Amino acid sequence: MGIKKLTSLTDNDVTPKADFDKSRALISASRRQFLTRSSGFMVAGALAPDALWAGNKIENYVTSQFSLKEKLTPYEYVTGYNNFYEFGTAKSDPALRAHLLKTKPWSLTIEGEVAKPGVYNLEDILKQQQLEERIYRLRCVEAWSMVVPWIGFSLAELIRQMEPTSKAKYVEFTTLYDPKQMPGQKSRILKWPYVEGLRMDEAMNPLSLMATGLYGEEMPNQNGAPLRLIVPWKYGFKSIKSIVKIKFTEQMPKTSWNESAKNEYGFYANVNPDVPHPRWSQRRERVIGASLFTPKRDTELFNGYGEHVAYLYKGMNLRQFF
Ligand SMILES: Nc1nc2c(c(=O)[nH]1)N[C@H]1C(S)=C(S)[C@@H](COP(=O)(O)O)O[C@H]1N2
Ligand SMILES: [Mo]
């Protein structure tokens, strides 16, 4: 797809302010409902409403042709039910503790097989990128899913600007390591820092998103501020948060979940209803934020993004390379 530059934007490309405010109003209505409904449930009820409004608005973004036209998961769930083991293993831990993370200023190190290695200021990188809103489903390996209006920029665009060499076959991503800011790193539940990786062609697929926000706001810390990956056709654990380093490599990166349990979490981790996790089925998923009476959703191959990504795995045995 052609990424539009800010200078070529027309009024039609930008989310109309009225729509934006309407969606804000909807969010705050559902938030009020949530706050009254939730007596002990999750975390949002325990936080002052102001804490939930911490994010700064993102001003300039276009809407993406890749967006799903589906019901969004309410903001409270997107930001209150998280996996971010750097802040603890309970789903409510990240929203309670992630304020400890200082996200400004933030530097991103680019290294390995690349013509433009260096330590970049995230602010400077963002000046070169076109932000888009992309409504994607995030499907966790634990068999639940959410539909989130992410805001971010194309990973492929960033990679092109950094000019990887012909030896670059994989892209390795690393999360910040700082147990003072990320107290969960004092536990040995995973080997820190958290590392994820993609094959170069996966990283260059137009769906791969470097996300900096959601619901029109800068990324909440619990969702991986200030910069996290979203790979919508793969299980959620590939979508690494709070990235400080991107390295171009010849060898397949050693990724955290694969290192911790090889038989449970493969390098590819493509969403696949036909390949069960050794301890549970992947056929269906719980829709986060839906009522208790809402039936589970049938999980789709590649999380429904097959038309965009199936070519990447042509001829590969997806049971072997899970
Ligand atoms: N650094 C880091 N990134 C991470 C994780 C983590 O524990 N640490 N959890 C992953 C998992 S298992 C999921 S499902 C998604 C959850 O993203 P969300 O909290 O924004 O929904 O983040 C992924 N990225
Ligand atoms: Mo996950």
What does this molecule look like?
It is a single chain. The protein is α+β, with helices and mostly antiparallel strands and 322 residues long. It contains 9 helices and 13 strands. A hairpin with a 2-residue loop joins β8 (209-214) and β9 (217-218). The chain has helices spanning 17-37, 49-52, 75-80, 93-97, 122-127, 155-162, 200-203, 256-260, 306-309; strands at 62-63, 107-112, 118-121, 132-140, 144-154, 170-175, 195-199, 209-214, 217-218, 228-230, 243-249, 284-287, 297-298. The protein has one domain: Alpha-Beta Complex (Sulfite Oxidase, Chain A, domain 2). The strands form 2 sheets. Strands 1, 4, 5, 8, 9, 10, 12 and 13 form an 8-stranded mixed beta sheet that branches. The chain starts with 16 loop residues before the first helix and ends in a 13-residue tail after the last helix. Helix content is 20%, strand content 21%. Bound molecules: the ligand Nc1nc2c(c(=O)[nH]1)N[C@H]1C(S)=C(S)[C@@H](COP(=O)(O)O)O[C@H]1N2 and molybdenum atom. The site of molybdenum atom has 6 residues, from loops. Residues 82-86, 138, 140, 175, 194, 223-224, 236-237, 239-242 line the site of ligand MTE.
